[in-house]
Automatic annotation (TrEMBL), chain A:
Function field: Confers DNA tethering and processivity to DNA polymerases and other proteins. Acts as a clamp, forming a ring around DNA (a reaction catalyzed by the clamp-loading complex) which diffuses in an ATP-independent manner freely and bidirectionally along dsDNA. Initially characterized for its ability to contact the catalytic subunit of DNA polymerase III (Pol III), a complex, multichain enzyme responsible for most of the replicative synthesis in bacteria; Pol III exhibits 3'-5' exonuclease proofreading activity.
Domain DNA polymerase III beta sliding clamp C-terminal: residue ranges: 249-368
A Pfam family reported for this protein in Swiss-Prot or TrEMBL: DNA_pol3_beta_2
Domain DNA polymerase III beta sliding clamp central residue range list: 132-246
Protein name (database record): Beta sliding clamp
Keyword Nucleotidyltransferase: yes
From TrEMBL, chain B:
Protein name (Swiss-Prot/TrEMBL): DNA polymerase IV
Example of a GO cellular component annotation carried by this entry: cytosol
Keywords: Cytoplasm, DNA damage, DNA repair, DNA replication, DNA-binding, DNA-directed DNA polymerase, Magnesium, Metal-binding, Mutator protein, Nucleotidyltransferase, Transferase
Keyword set includes Nucleotide-binding: no
Gene: dinB
């Protein structure tokens, strides 16, 4: 039975949208498959890892058969399509147990598994909150904090991102216990207070899928789920069950010692110094005296990098150590021209902000060197 | 008081494989330490246990006011008791309320582990002056390898007892035999202030009449099982066929039972022992419900984790495996553990791991005991090689 005939990209583009979450090795073989389904006039592609479910549609294409549904190895089909020349006409056909992809003189015969076995999960219908923003805004908001998420931490709730709606704000927070990033975005309409933890994987996937455009994305907070609808994609994720720590208590207020500095300048200086930082500890010493910042890195071979920056600083002298990666991370992900670095003492956290802007805060704990 | 073995001073070192191993056990250690502090309690039944609430109070005239066991209410257990209290049937591990029924007038003192550790160090140091061949076996027990010392056994044993008395003011009991197994049995034969020297040929006379539970390694369960098989004394055990024992107890334990009954034990005295694990546990004042008493439990868990972390730091270890132990109100006991990616001695990390373990147990039933254990120990200085050791932690937790 002939399923569809279309130009390569008509199939490849939607397929690539959903395959990002497909796990290569999974105990359930069908989870490596993509569900290709025709209903009404649309061809949908669905993938899931049981936590996240993502669906999208083929834009057009000459669909020639009645309703059908089949599942086939997602990565294999994607690799085949990608390896075909651009603009090639591709035909997909099925019989009892196989899917045949034909293009020119190429023939591929893939195993299928029954669509009935594909574990689509039920999606809640009553949104507790619904927000629509521009895709580029959400993409930007996530990018401000996602690098601070924990990875495989046993505090499982840190392996994700806190998304919080309150009044006219949408706030996001990520922390790995050593540093914490907070960002907020103003909304037009006030929102009810809602709080969910998005799994790490979803955040990384959204960062990949969201466009840098004015097109909208709708975020719906459902019972234990969040649904993101944008472009032709509908992504539903289960939320992380757990209590995210109270981020407010670790954001310091009233730090007196601070300086403003050009972000690019500080970033480049730290990048140079990091060449000779210890590969394992990644330590950097910041030595702050009146109008001067000295940056020192040592590695295990006793090699040393030293940088000096002139700036305006009239606070007490300070000698404080950090993991340089944590500083590079934040400087890399901000876009403004100037950053403000504020300190307590050598044992307390540092606060990095954008002068004149309360929408972003980055707290990083020092490191004894 | 000295042993029947006074003249049995003929363990002959010239014979190959002949060893002289001593087991030294302090007499009613905790209680005796308390009596040093409160000499007026000498000769009275004294029970140690419970919490600090039962601390003696000092009167204006300088005399002490002690709590009586009859006034005790709670679920603490007897840590130890003086011999005067043991006469009434009080033993370590017994509930304090139960002990109060047996001897309501006994004096109740809270345990003071700091003091006990202090005296423990004192007596071990005193013995170490005589020979460094010492194996630590808890706070109040040591094994001493006397091989290689020239003096005869009786002289040595008396000298050791003397050294312990001079350094601490406390008495101890010593058993000297060719191995640890027999010595441990013998140190208990003439308590308190005992000295027992035993040759292999004395085994039938002195060891075999004893009940099997006197052998360290035969616990209550094995004792019960043996009794069911008609074996109550060590003599019964010695007569039993190895094959018979192995059928009922498995091949290695069966074999060991046979050897133990015949006084065979080749274990060396291990002078440099590394602990395998460090743990802390507590029985609650009342059974606690995982949900309704969440805050209390959370506080207790934090306390235990902090104690374990402090123990690790004090002893210079870091742990990679953290376990929790739960005892439900029906005495069902379970444990769960988690292995960390890098060793830690940090209270927050221990607490976090313990919490993770708790997520894997059913928390519907009331609990009576909670414990935290740190194992897979490594020396703490290896910590410095692990990546995050100097990285500060955000104060995310309460």
């Amino acid at each position: 039975m002939k399923l569809i005939q279309a130009e390569r990209d008509t199939l490849l583009k939607p397929l690539q949208m959903v395959t990002g979450i497909v796990e290569r090795r999974h105990t359930l073989p069908i989870l490596s498959n993509v569900l290709i389904e025709r209903k009404d006039d649309k061809i949908s592609f669905v993938a899931t890892d049981l936590e996240i479910q993502i669906a999208t549609y083929a834009e057009d294409g000459d669909t020639v058969s009645e309703g059908y549904a089949v599942t086939v190895a997602a990565k294999k089909l994607q690799d085949i399509l990608r390896a075909l020349p651009d603009k090639t006409q591709v035909t997909l056909e099925t019989d009892e147990s196989r899917l045949h992809a034909k293009a020119g003189k190429s023939r591929f015969h893939l195993q299928t598994l029954p669509a009935e076995d594909f574990p689509k999960f039920p999606v809640g219908s009553e949104p507790q909150a619904k927000i629509t923003v521009k895709q580029k805004e959400l993409k930007h908001l996530l990018s401000m904090v996602q690098y601070a998420m924990a990875q495989q931490d046993i505090r499982y709730y840190l392996n994700g991102l806190l998304l919080l709606t309150e009044d006219n704000d949408i706030k996001v927070v990520a922390t790995d216990g050593h540093r914490l990033a907070f960002a907020l975005m103003k909304l037009e309409a006030p929102q009810e207070k809602r709080e969910v933890i998005l799994p790490r994987k979803v955040v990384l996937e959204l960062a990949r899928l969201l466009n840098d455009t004015d097109e909208s994305v709708t975020v719906e907070i459902l019972q234990n789920q969040v649904r993101f609808s944008f472009s032709s994609v509908v992504l539903v994720t289960k939320v992380v069950d757990g209590k995210f720590p109270d981020y407010n208590r670790v954001i310091p207020a009233g730090y007196q010692k601070h300086f403003d500095i050009n972000r690019q300048l500080l970033l480049q200086t730290l990048q140079r110094a990091s060449i000779l930082s210890n590969e394992k500890f990644r330590g950097v010493r910041l030595i702050l005296t009146t109008d001067n910042l000295r940056i020192v890195c040592n590695n295990s071979e006793q090699e040393e990098a030293e940088e000096e920056l002139e700036l305006h600083y009239d606070g007490e002298a300070l000698d404080i150590g950090f993991n340089i990666s944590y500083l590079l991370d934040v400087l890399n992900h901000l876009s403004g021209e100037t950053v403000r670095c504020a300190f307590g003492d050598a044992n307390s956290s540092a606060l990095i902000t954008i002068p004149g802007n309360d929408d972003f805060k980055y707290v990083v704990m020092p490191m004894r060197i | 008081m000295d042993a029947q073995g006074l003249d049995k001073n003929r363990i002959d070192e010239r014979l190959p494989g002949y060893r002289r191993i001593a087991h030294l056990d302090m007499d009613a250690f905790y209680a005796s330490v308390e009596l040093l502090r409160y000499p007026e309690l000498c000769g009275l039944p004294v029970v140690i246990g419970g919490s600090g609430d039962w601390q003696p109070e000092i009167h204006k005239d300088g005399s002490w006011h002690f709590s009586r066991l009859r006034n005790y209410a709670g679920r603490g257990v007897v840590t130890t008791a003086t011999y005067e209290a043991r006469v009434f049937g009080v033993f370590s591990g017994m509930g304090l309320m139960k002990a109060a029924q047996l001897t309501p007038d006994a004096i109740l003192l809270p345990a003071d582990f700091r003091a006990y550790r202090h005296y423990s160090r004192l007596f071990k140091a005193a013995v170490a002056e005589i020979t460094p061949q010492i194996e630590d076996h808890g706070i109040d027990e040591i094994y001493i390898d006397l091989c290689g010392l020239t003096d005869d056994t009786l002289t040595l044993a008396r000298r050791i007892k003397q050294a312990v008395r001079e350094s601490t003011g406390l008495s101890c009991s010593i058993g000297v035999t060719p191995n640890k197994l027999l010595s441990k049995i013998c140190s208990d034969l003439e308590k308190p202030d005992g000295l027992t020297i035993l040759d292999p040929e004395d085994i039938p006379n002195r060891i075999w009449p004893l009940p099997v539970r006197k052998i360290s390694g035969i616990g209550p369960k094995a004792t019960q099982k043996l009794a069911a098989l008609g074996i109550t004394t060590i003599a019964d055990l010695a007569r039993a066929e190895t094959a018979f024992l192995q059928t009922h107890f498995g091949s290695s334990y069966g074999h060991w039972l046979h050897e133990a009954a015949h006084g065979i034990d080749d274990r060396p005295v291990v002078t440099e022992s590394e602990p395998k694990s460090l743990s802390r546990e507590t029985t609650f004042e009342r059974d606690l419900h995982p949900r309704h008493d969440r805050h209390i439990l959370s506080k207790i868990l934090t306390g235990l984790c902090t104690d374990v972390a402090n123990d690790l730091q004090r002893k210079g270890y870091a742990s990679r495996t953290i376990s929790i132990k739960l005892r439900y109100d029906d005495f069902r006991t379970i444990s769960r553990n988690i292995t960390l990616s890098s060793p830690t001695a940090d209270a927050v990390a221990v607490r976090r791991a313990a919490e993770e373990c708790l997520r894997r147990v059913s928390l519907k039933q009331k609990l009576r005991l909670l414990g935290v254990r740190a194992s897979t120990l490594s020396a703490a200085n290896t910590l410095r090689n692990s990546s995050m050791s100097h990285q500060g932690e955000l104060p995310l937790a309460e």
